[in-house]
């Protein structure tokens, strides 16, 4: 066999295997880009050696056999695929070929050849799966997948559940029989939810929205299809009983289909305004660039754009080849997925000590950028992927997101591939690496489970953590010390000039001027910036400390509610959970951060010898006093079978914790049903539970809380006595934060709407609660109006 024949045979086998995986098993083994490359290599070789082309070559047929569980339907007209171009040169060649054929067929004039002779209808290339919809007398009678292009599968039952597919055409003038072609796809937001659900259930998620859409459409149960919110977009017609009923241009056809209720997304989109008709290849290129720049902001995946000769007459002169039309071409975007080799897995130590695996890859170009590292998130992810060093992996780079390892190509695993193991010691400082524990409390008991994060226990004695901690400490939204770049901080740490954030304030001019890139002016500037940072607000300071899981929002909540560093430093985890958006997990992180000796010393040094003066400290907020009620506290103890309602009853009856602890059985029985009363008794029979409850109560009192005053505090607030309901998705703030803000104004936040509800705040996706509010005539605010209302009360969103 010649070299060419040998390679052709290899390529055919490989492509057949991929086709089988893709179409029949629905488990793609390589990214599209890789498939395209092999396919084009085969096409090129066959073009050079036409004598080697055989009818069974993958280039000679349209696809592979469909799976057989759904009824097979033969297409009246084959469902073609599209040829691809990847560069301007290839696009120009396509345009010139069209011009040549059209002038030979006298469809355009020969002496006018040049750019802008042909008008192209420019469309998006949606990344989903092609389907055909049959309308007879305007009614949807059948929906079929593309299948192998000549025979597809009947998916009418599933398609009917897709809201964007009209069951009856709107308007008038449609031909008696009309076959509409288009793409079903899964919006990215729906895909992300589906992945999160699968991961939470420990199932293997779909690799991308297209696989998810295809996996969904193959479901035999229509309710699953319905629940997955698949969408549809049309891009043309197939069989029509009366061609004359349709316009003579593709662009006009799309507009007409749109008026019949068949969505051609970009026809009506605000971003596109209408179908784009471009003059010649240069017009096409303008469209390509425009779409490429908005690719990441579209709500669905596209893998390129499609140019179609706009005049239908010209299309018929150009005709089709076996697999694809001559009058259309897909201009593909650089692929977002590529295959490469995983050379090694290294472990990085972050600011909070988290030790995370990073993939070191054989460099590969993905979507136009060289990629040699990718994130592996954590060890759970490593396990889920089943990845080994030496594996061939699929990586993906989308937008600004850090490249990710998507999957392993198992068929290509070398025999010497080695498993990935978390190091026992920190690669930077040698301290122990320990798995984090998650604190959960249920039925009044705290329990621990393994977290997915491993941490170096070295804290600030670990140079990696120290560097990151200081980078964070000086950052703009923290202490805002300008002129201290990452490189400088690394140098300061490496040369042991600083060992903690407090040391920054002891830096001398002589030390700074000795650093790389510093001269007299810049050294003085830096000293001034350090000096100027000495009066941070409490919130900034808390954020700057870099407590694990405490971002800016949480730092603000802590500062606003507790209003003094002393209170934040000493707050018990349970007390912290009174604050909006702080769960037990974060509460424990905060508490143990302040218990750490080293952290204590650094904070004392900052506030003492370094001379920092915190701003905006003051009285415990009304927000906190309003939330920290006796009922709330009893509820937070998580006494088995005692919910918020029962906790409230106990508080009202006994008035204090002592009252509850010493309350006699009869009183207790009159207040609560026997089962709950018993549970309360049993709970406080445990000395540990009683001690913990007293400690919490005592702390709340130290913070200036008086149970008696709780009602009065609320009464003085602007929304006292009002009940509000939050529903739908809030985009600016989380529901918990919104709840906290309302409560700080004295309102109660309830879970259901009734005639007593004062106001409903409804975000996108609001359903029955919003409808109920409408029925009852309850006032409804959207999030923007709600934020305005908060502002009117002096509370920022
Ligand atoms: S036209 C005769 N237009 O891409 C031309 N296809 O790679 C047939 N696709 O099977 C296709 N967006 O699933 C066309 N605006 C668009 C498209 C589009 C996505 C898909 C379709 C087709 C595949 C070809």
Automatic annotation (TrEMBL):
<dbReference type="Pfam" id="PF00533">
    <property type="entry name" value="BRCT"/>
</dbReference>
<dbReference type="InterPro" id="IPR010994">
    <property type="entry name" value="RuvA_2-like"/>
</dbReference>
<dbReference type="InterPro" id="IPR033136">
    <property type="entry name" value="DNA_ligase_CS"/>
</dbReference>
<dbReference type="InterPro" id="IPR018239">
    <property type="entry name" value="DNA_ligase_AS"/>
</dbReference>
<dbReference type="GO" id="GO:0006260">
    <property type="term" value="P:DNA replication"/>
</dbReference>
<dbReference type="GO" id="GO:0003911">
    <property type="term" value="F:DNA ligase (NAD+) activity"/>
</dbReference>
<keyword id="KW-0464">Manganese</keyword>
<dbReference type="GO" id="GO:0006281">
    <property type="term" value="P:DNA repair"/>
</dbReference>
<protein>
    <recommendedName>
        <fullName>DNA ligase</fullName>
        <ecNumber>6.5.1.2</ecNumber>
    </recommendedName>
</protein>
<keyword id="KW-0862">Zinc</keyword>
<feature type="binding site">
    <location>
        <position position="462"/>
    </location>
    <ligand>
        <name>Zn(2+)</name>
    </ligand>
</feature>
<comment type="function">
    <text>DNA ligase that catalyzes the formation of phosphodiester linkages between 5'-phosphoryl and 3'-hydroxyl groups in double-stranded DNA using NAD as a coenzyme and as the energy source for the reaction. It is essential for DNA replication and repair of damaged DNA.</text>
</comment>
<dbReference type="InterPro" id="IPR013839">
    <property type="entry name" value="DNAligase_adenylation"/>
</dbReference>
<feature type="binding site">
    <location>
        <position position="123"/>
    </location>
    <ligand>
        <name>NAD(+)</name>
    </ligand>
</feature>
<keyword id="KW-0234">DNA repair</keyword>
<feature type="binding site">
    <location>
        <position position="429"/>
    </location>
    <ligand>
        <name>Zn(2+)</name>
    </ligand>
</feature>
<dbReference type="InterPro" id="IPR003583">
    <property type="entry name" value="Hlx-hairpin-Hlx_DNA-bd_motif"/>
</dbReference>
<dbReference type="Pfam" id="PF03120">
    <property type="entry name" value="OB_DNA_ligase"/>
</dbReference>
<dbReference type="Pfam" id="PF03119">
    <property type="entry name" value="DNA_ligase_ZBD"/>
</dbReference>
<dbReference type="Pfam" id="PF12826">
    <property type="entry name" value="HHH_2"/>
</dbReference>
<dbReference type="InterPro" id="IPR041663">
    <property type="entry name" value="DisA/LigA_HHH"/>
</dbReference>
<dbReference type="InterPro" id="IPR012340">
    <property type="entry name" value="NA-bd_OB-fold"/>
</dbReference>
<dbReference type="Pfam" id="PF01653">
    <property type="entry name" value="DNA_ligase_aden"/>
</dbReference>
<dbReference type="GO" id="GO:0003677">
    <property type="term" value="F:DNA binding"/>
</dbReference>
<dbReference type="GO" id="GO:0005829">
    <property type="term" value="C:cytosol"/>
</dbReference>
<dbReference type="InterPro" id="IPR036420">
    <property type="entry name" value="BRCT_dom_sf"/>
</dbReference>
<feature type="binding site">
    <location>
        <begin position="81"/>
        <end position="82"/>
    </location>
    <ligand>
        <name>NAD(+)</name>
    </ligand>
</feature>
<feature type="active site" description="N6-AMP-lysine intermediate">
    <location>
        <position position="125"/>
    </location>
</feature>
<dbReference type="GO" id="GO:0046872">
    <property type="term" value="F:metal ion binding"/>
</dbReference>
<dbReference type="InterPro" id="IPR004149">
    <property type="entry name" value="Znf_DNAligase_C4"/>
</dbReference>
<feature type="domain" description="BRCT">
    <location>
        <begin position="714"/>
        <end position="791"/>
    </location>
</feature>
<feature type="binding site">
    <location>
        <position position="332"/>
    </location>
    <ligand>
        <name>NAD(+)</name>
    </ligand>
</feature>
<dbReference type="InterPro" id="IPR004150">
    <property type="entry name" value="NAD_DNA_ligase_OB"/>
</dbReference>
<comment type="similarity">
    <text>Belongs to the NAD-dependent DNA ligase family. LigA subfamily.</text>
</comment>
<dbReference type="InterPro" id="IPR001357">
    <property type="entry name" value="BRCT_dom"/>
</dbReference>
<keyword id="KW-0227">DNA damage</keyword>
<keyword id="KW-0235">DNA replication</keyword>
<feature type="binding site">
    <location>
        <position position="308"/>
    </location>
    <ligand>
        <name>NAD(+)</name>
    </ligand>
</feature>
<feature type="binding site">
    <location>
        <position position="426"/>
    </location>
    <ligand>
        <name>Zn(2+)</name>
    </ligand>
</feature>
<keyword id="KW-0520">NAD</keyword>
<dbReference type="InterPro" id="IPR001679">
    <property type="entry name" value="DNA_ligase"/>
</dbReference>
<feature type="binding site">
    <location>
        <position position="183"/>
    </location>
    <ligand>
        <name>NAD(+)</name>
    </ligand>
</feature>
